[in-house]
Design brief:
The complex is a heterotrimer of chains A (349), B (526) and C (313).
Chain A lengths: L1 E4 L5 H25 L4 H13 L2 H26 L7 H16 L7 H30 L3 H21 L34 H18 L1 H11 L1 H6 L4 H28 L10 H11 L4 H25 L5 H21 E4 L2
Antiparallel strand pairs in A: 1-2
Helix pairs in contact in A: 1-13, 2-3, 2-12, 3-7, 3-10, 3-11, 3-12, 4-5, 4-6, 4-10, 4-11, 5-6, 5-10, 7-8, 7-10, 7-12, 8-10, 11-12, 11-13, 12-13
Chain B lengths: L8 E10 L2 E11 L4 E5 L6 H9 L6 E6 L2 E2 L5 H6 L2 E4 L11 H6 L12 H15 L14 H14 L4 E5 L7 H16 L3 E6 L2 H7 L2 E6 L2 E7 L5 H9 L16 E12 L2 E12 L3 E5 L6 H8 L7 E6 L2 E3 L4 H6 L2 E4 L3 H5 L6 H5 L10 E2 L2 E2 L1 H15 L5 H9 L15 H13 L5 E5 L7 H16 L3 E5 L3 H7 L2 E6 L2 E2 L3 E2 L5 H8 L13
Helix pairs in contact in B: 13-15
Chain C lengths: L2 H5 L2 H26 L7 H17 L4 H25 L4 H23 L26 H6 L3 H19 L1 H11 L1 H6 L4 H28 L10 H11 L4 H25 L5 H20 L18
Helix pairs in contact in C: 2-7, 2-10, 2-11, 2-12, 3-4, 3-5, 3-10, 3-11, 4-5, 4-10, 7-8, 11-12, 11-13, 12-13
Classes of the chains: A mainly alpha (349), B alpha/beta (526), C mainly alpha (313).
Chain lengths: 349, 526, 313
Amino acid sequence: MRLERRQGVSLWLRLTLPVMAIAIALLLCSTLLLWAGVSVSDAYLSLAQGAFGSKFALTETLTRATPLIFTGLAAAVAFRAKLWNIGGEGQLYMGAMAITLFGTGAVTLPPVLMVPFLFLVAVLGGGMLLLVSAALKTWLRVDEVVTTLLLNFVVLLLVDYLLFGPWKDPMALGWPQAARIVDEGRLATIVPRSRLHTGLLFALGAACLVWVVMRFTRWGFEIRAVGHNIFAAGFSGIPVKLAVIRTALLSGGLAACAGVTEVAGTKGYLTVDISPGFGYTGIAVAMLAGLNPLGVIAAAVFFAGIYNGADSMSRAMNVSNYIADVMTATALLSMLVCSLLVNYRLKRN
Amino acid sequence: MKPLSPPVLEISGISKRFGNLQANQDLTFSLGRGEVLALLGENGAGKTTLMNILFGHYVADSGEIRLDGQQLQQGSPAVALDAGVGMVHQHFTLGENLTALENVLLGTESLRQPFQRSDVARERLAQLSQRFGLKVDPDSRVSELSVGERQRVEILKALFRDARILILDEPTAVLTPQESVQLFAALRGMVAEGMSIIFISHKLAETFDIADRVVVLRRGELAGIFETRSTSAEELAQAMVGHALPEIKRRSGTVGPAVIELRNVGVEREGESRLFDVNLAVPAGEVVGIAGVSGNGQNTLTGVLGGDLSVTSGSLSLHGEEIRHASPRGFIEAGVARIPEDRTDIGIVGEMSLAENLILEDYRDQRFQRAGWMRRRRIDSHAKSLCEKFDIRGSEQARQAEKFDIRGSEQARQAKELSGGNIQKLILARVLHKSPRLIIASQPTRGLDVGAQAQVHQRLLDAKQHGVAVYLVSEDLEELFSICDRIHVMFEGRLSDAIPIEEADIEEIGLMMTGKGFFGRPSDAA
Amino acid sequence: MELVEILFTVGFWTAVIRMATPLIFGTLGELICERAGVLNLGIEGIMTFGAMIAWMWVYQGGDLYSAIVVAAIAGAVFGVLHSGLTVYLGVSQHVSGIGITLLASSFSYFIFRVMLPDVTTPPKIESFEPLAIPLLSSIPFIGPALFQQTVITYIALALIPVFSYVLYRTPFGLAVRMVGENPLAVEAQGIDVLALRTIAVAIGSALMAIGGAFLTISVFDAFYFGMINGRGWICIALVIFASWKPGKAFLGTILFAGFDALQIRIQQESGIGIPYQFFLMLPYLLSIAALILISRKAAYPKALLVPFRKGER
């Protein structure tokens, strides 16, 4: 068996690949479930019910998908430009900190302006952070994988300090959390008696916006050219440095929006654990979506379902909910393998 | 001289297909002991593929290879090396950051061995070096060696492993005429000691120089086997090409003022001086050629003229105006058409479509975008018209796939799927359709077959006819002599004065490329 | 105590050598992968898994020495997986590495939770005791610092000259160095590029896992979630900082561990002053600073990150 280059690929194939990857992941993880001593069919059934089986499950899954859409978009935009942004987590917290700084009473604006304003400061916060790594890469050839990763740790420590220190809400009875976001800045609930809020709508809008920008605008053209081949783009006179800066601001900004949805939407205030790794999961989301902005939506919902389902499954069947993380990682790796079929076909020797 | 029986190598019925391309079709010939066999053919004829099969990089689809009557197991360089086959690849297989000795030692001892016999090896290498006149410092890093020295390391690698058959793939492509002479002397020395040689080339002249017999390939098939002493250049050329070469229409036009001019230009990069006191004028309506061995500053010179590099001292003027800071976009907008040396990695963005690559320089134009919104239909029709005008063809497979693909237009294919010739045509289309005033072309026909080469030459000459200034860098002296009006030679960062083509002598130019007679022409010496 | 005084205490240097140990394993492990042309971003996850599996082995009744072997084997398995994906199938080394880190980490947490579902505080095991080397440990100052460490640290210190020897003076090491510079050169000399790279990555990953195991069976006696805490990523920075040379890598780990140890002590001394989180940030910021200084001139192995496809010439 060997791999032979394929000429052209159909849309149907591109759509089947994530499904294949998911199937492989579920198959592989079933061995773990067997080892843990549970019935595979019961477990997966419980997972599915917990993910999509009731109105409550559905709203929970969509609530969880909201930040994943943003971090997925962040990774997709960056990876397409060969900017290995592993700092989604840090950028998310930058966004969360930015809106805590401005949205807990320091600035007052009418509700119609307040929410966009909060998104704006978040985008700037996250964008600036990634810009540091992107600038170091472009001007000083410093590998961005390491810098984005290490900055995650730095940002988290900063949040830790702020929440145990100057930002500690005196009204929170000793818990390390910041003051609440003012009412004008909160994201409204869209399904009553659930946690699902308008953040989802912003996320969907962002996905469409990214898709349109990449495909149909001049900026998208430049970012794509620079992302695929920075040398050829520069040779033809495309402003490379500007494109890199725009990519960094866009990717970092998108990740930061996940911070907004969690702090201004889901929870209402900043805590240290506002993100259980959304930044990293976003990478898996982006890969499964084939780095396509619209595909990110589906992939985000899928992974959110897995995590939600795993929570309820672990309660029902006493299996650690870390199985969700294993599934995520397995799906990512499977998708990598399946993606090969886009460019190559298997042939007998 | 007929091959002594039994032949040391027999190739029978070798065929190899890559996708839709039949690279080798039923090739059969043999090589005698102590014989030099030239494998001749134009670019893309299948010569390298065949030798790669012999050396074990590929497995043939059908056919067999016998060495001294024993069948050779294909697909493993280790087996080929053991059987006595050595190869000097066209692109050297050397690790630049390691020493010459380390490169030679690699793979000669078992990987399980917990020590290295480098002293023994060093002695053996010195002996081989001496015996065949291949001088090289074993402890110098390959990155510090000249191209000629690197080639010697490649040859020594084969000799070190007791090769009895040596394959050389286009060895003189990177050498000066004088270095080629040295190489041939070394090869003759090896032949005298029983070495059999297969020599791949696309140059007729050296074939007569070194080979006993010639095997000509054309489009993957055997076009003929000849003995050099009983054949002629015309017969071989006819076999190589299969038809009369398209005649290039060469007319002189009116020469105008210099479109771009360099005066006493010096360039420093990363702390090193790359260009010294360069004076160059490229007049409208003339083709100015730059001869020289790669690595003598041509890339820097081309970069300066194309607006990619800034001048450190001296002056550069474009259309009469002095330019201080390099700017690719500025030069492009001033009517400079740049054809890069590396067409696949710098000339196109492989993952983008053909249409998108065609507007890589022009995408800001109002025709193709309005207020930031890309105008897809206009872009596609522009691409269609350029493809017709410049004869750019998508791959055959792409056309086939199109029939079953719901996405439709050929314009959607990724540009990297195009053949080398079509990529070059794409680049030409992109830069020439705008009626530029100056063309900066670097190795534009490298790796192209004769037909594509002729097309490129014709375009350059047509442009010159229309008053465009053309600057051409090429390693191929024949190419320079066939289309240039004047030639400069580049050597160690310095540029010679212009030599009008009527007064230029190919031997003399070759000498200047090695530095002899560079400063002041030999005829000027008393 | 003054800063300078701290540098002259034996206890400080003992701590430095101890803290450098996982970094030595991780950095040398990553070094051999990258020298062979493969970036292995799975290091953080592999170290985590090594830590967990070694601990679990001992907790379930195994002995300490075989725990090291178990960790090494586990690491090698992840290495082979990474190699299978990147070297044989040619997928993105960046994404595969990140995927492996996610997989190895989550795998370790899952296994831990399944086997010990009800614990809240991580249980402890009997870890390695410091082993004083007779005679050598009596040398003033250097003695206690270098020669009263645990077994794994001794392995680390011995590893450095052995690693250098193998890399620079054996045919295998030559092949590894060459395959990261120009795999075509290796193929043209009859060596299987894919197999060679896989072996290098497997060895490197085994070393990484031992580095992780050190933390549980030699230092902390227990497995905490998130205990690797970014040390794997720091090793990646250290490899670049070391210009892919083992000797320099050792210096880098000592420098870094020294800084880390210093930062802990200053924290303890200064008391209120600066919040502890800022001290904890310093190692990461220092790594970034080191990268900035060195990256401009960094001589990357030429074929790093470039997939090698057989027959595609």
